[in-house]
Amino acid sequence: METASERYLLRQSLTMDELRTFHDAAANRLDEIFTYLDSFPDGDLPEAEARLYRTVMGLSEVMQAVEIFGAPRVKNAPYPHHIDTIWTQSGSE
Fold it and tell me: Which domain of life does this protein belong to (predicted)?
C-alpha cells in the first residue's frame, strides 16, 4: 500500500484474525526492522526496503485495530470510509 488512505481502507476490509496474525508477526520485530532501514541514506531506500517500510507503515493501522479499537473498523463509523491527511507548513494556512 502506497498511501495512508490505502492502508486505512485495507484495515477496514480485513478480519481481526488477519490483523492479529500480521500484528503478531511484525510488532515484535520493529526495532530490528528500523535498525536495518536506518542503515540506508535518508530518502534513498532500494525498492525491496521501500516495500518493507510501507509494510511497517501498515502496522500502524493494524496496531490501532488490535490494541485500541478491538475491531477492524471504528465503531459507529460508516463502512467503508476514508481519511485524507493534508500536510501544510506552519504559517502557510
Answer: Bacteria
